[in-house]
Recover the amino acids of this structure.
């Protein structure tokens, strides 16, 4: 029986730049940062609240998972903003939005009332969108 989800992958254009964004803009902690077989870099981040789910910041590269052609197609889709990085929860969407804007994070939607709470939509430095949500209580 599967009991939890440990990691989810976000494809990024450059792992060093993505690490800087997720750590210094969004305030995430670094989980693992190590080189593994074949030059692959295992890089994970997670919110300071210590979520059990870590995000893997992965560059699509030719190797066991992708052909050269498929890696290039994925990079192109990232640049087009076709992928999402996930939904990040906050206790106060307006306050977190203002803090992130002050740090230079780009948003495509300011905090907006939704059926499930307040949501803002941002973009990471690779072009992946993410949702910032304050759940309704």
């Amino acid at each position: 029986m599967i009991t939890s989800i440990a990691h989810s992958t976000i494809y990024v254009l450059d792992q060093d730049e993505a690490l800087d964004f997720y750590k210094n803009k969004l305030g995430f902690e670094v989980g693992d940062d190590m080189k593994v077989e074949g030059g692959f870099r295992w890089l994970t981040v997670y919110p300071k609240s210590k979520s059990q789910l870590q995000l893997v910041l992965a560059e699509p590269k030719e190797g066991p998972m992708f052909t050269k052609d498929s890696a290039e197609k994925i990079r192109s889709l990232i640049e087009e903003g076709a992928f999402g990085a996930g939904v990040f929860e906050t206790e106060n969407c307006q306050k977190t939005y203002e803090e992130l804007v002050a740090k230079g994070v780009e948003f495509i939607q300011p905090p907006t009332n939704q059926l499930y709470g307040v949501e803002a939509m941002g973009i990471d430095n690779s072009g992946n969108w993410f949702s910032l949500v304050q759940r309704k209580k």
Q: What stands out?
A: The mean pLDDT is 94.
